[in-house]
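Record 1 of the preview.
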Amino acid sequence: MYGLKIKNAKKIIFIENKANYINYIQNTKKSDEFVVYHGGMYSPIKGEFFKKLYEVAKNIEFYHWSDIDIDQLLNVNS
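->
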């Protein structure tokens, strides 16, 4: 992850669902977007990646696209 650079990106979009990610990459993605598939489940390694990405993308807009599962709601309420 060292030396991570994001050239020409105005938006970073995290997409949880693989089908949505593939569809977005194939049909919608613009040249100024950096799109990340993350699979939905948080892990410390993903957290480190997100942190590094945020550090190198100071003036870039971040977006998150996911659905809400019952497990996610249970985690929020616990």
